[in-house]
Design brief:
The chain is an all-alpha fold and 639 residues long. Helix content is 75%, strand content 0%. The protein contains 36 helices and no strands.
Amino acid sequence: MMPGKIGLRRAISTMPYLSQRIKQTESDIVKMFRLSSPREETEDFSRNRTSLPRRNSSARVLDERFIRILKIFKWGPDAEKALEVLKMRVDHRLVREVLSIDVEINVKINFFKWAGKRRNFEHDSTTYMALIRCLDDVGMVGEMWKTIQEMVRGMCLIGPADLSEIVRILGKAKMVNKALSVFYQIKTRKCKPNVSTYNSIILMLMQQGQYEKVHELYNEMCNEQNCFPDTFTYSALISSFGKLGRDDSAFRLFCEMKDNGLHPTPKIYTTLLAMHFKSGRVEEALALVKEMKESGCVLTVYTYTELIKGLWKAGKPEEGYNVFLNMLKEGCKPDVVLINNVINLLGRSGRLADALKLFEDMKSFNCEPNVVTYNTVIKVLFESKAPASEAILWFERMKTNGFVPSSFTYSILIDGFCKTNRIEKALLLLEEMDEKGFPPCPAAYCSLINALGKSKRYEAANELFQELKENCGSSSARVYAVMIKHFGKCGRMGEAVDMFNEMKNLGCCPDIYAYNALMSGMVRAGLIDDAHSLLRTMEENGCSPDLNSHNIILNGLARSGGPEQAVQMFMKMKHSNLKPDAVTYNTVLSCYSRSGMFEEAAKLMKEMRSNGFEYDMITYSSILEAVGKIDVDQTHAIR
């Protein structure tokens, strides 16, 4: 056997081509890595006096030549020979350095695998993490996951910092379940997680919207010894509870962190401020701002944005604008989001001139407008009843200044033109949207369908509705509601009911607008019992009726069922969470007037005024109807 083997080896090595190639390769490699002679070094130093470092210059040249070998020959026998010539020891430092240089990813992977098979060498967490980062950078998710699994199953130690980074990388790749699996495997066998590790998991879960799981992780964290939540943990938890609508839990954690000696950050205060305003707790929100200032926590531009938005939604636009002015005095620079909100506040509060002036003042704040800024200006122009031509001028200015209109821009223009009864212009804009490649916008179609319905152009409205369904494959609940409303108004109840059933069959869950639209149509058609039944169905299906829902049924009872049923429902409404509004009072007042119950009508008018409702045209119409009825009755009595 031995002679055969020797003969075979000689046969290969003496083949002319291979022998020449091997000698040439060895010669090339030796030349590339040969140390320069003193004379060459002197000449080279003279030419590159400013760029070549004085110390360790030969090592730098060798590194560059080794990189050149890797780029030319990739990883293989030639590059391996280079290591021998250089007498480079394969250790963790070398592996990390090779993985950090600018060569193809496959070269790095092959070198990493080759190094792992070397005698007396095992990869540690630093080399594994270096390769994982490289794979993450180039998006090789499958290979990255295999490397992570190999690292977890192997014998190398993994520290909390590495575990945190693995979680972050897997979270970024949207591999949440795999990240959790790795976390629990390493936690059980190799590593005791610290607060930073838990924070990495919590942040990943928040980014993926898994807010319930965040609370579970917090409980696990509290059960760990010497692992206490920090400010970041509390910030994430408070934000998660806010997303879940669990305000009580969020504020409990806020108190807990203060009791533990931690200082809430501006972000935490801002999150809680938004929660208060969202739930209508205006006084509590203002008290929180006061506490924030007294504790020395600086109000950021984000805090001011939430405060101004909250005051405007609470019906306090002047206070909101004053906050903005005080913010400027205190030296806090507004950003474009805050400016957009203030323009919206001013425009919708009847202060269009101030809104437009603020737009022009943006340059003085070193704040550039964006598409949303222009959209906001165009929207408030329409809402302020400004001439439609002004909106068009701003639309053109937007394009001139290099801003590309969004689908929302077109939707605002279409809605504005529909509300000013310029339907043909709105239809042209819809065509322009299509020509520019925008996907069908349900909001734009909804505005047009509603405007066509109001103009009694029912067939045109239905044609647009069918076009939207063909282009999108479905339609939104709001568009269905508009179609149901107009079918009900024109007496086509069969088609209204069919459309309501169609949306359910297509998996489009009816919302409150769809239910109210169908109930309104039923009341118009005298189908009061069916409307009342639909109200009960609505509640059973988890869609809570609003005040408008009850007013629709109340109107039906008042017109057909006599005053007793209407008054009975009115009394129930007064003792429920849905307090009567002016529409409710006018409906019952009209019912009393038609039934000749004038004393009850007079009492109701007093109650209406005492509850802060002003008499409107409908109220006076009911009074005149009652007076007219008295005159007619008296005339008949005289005759």
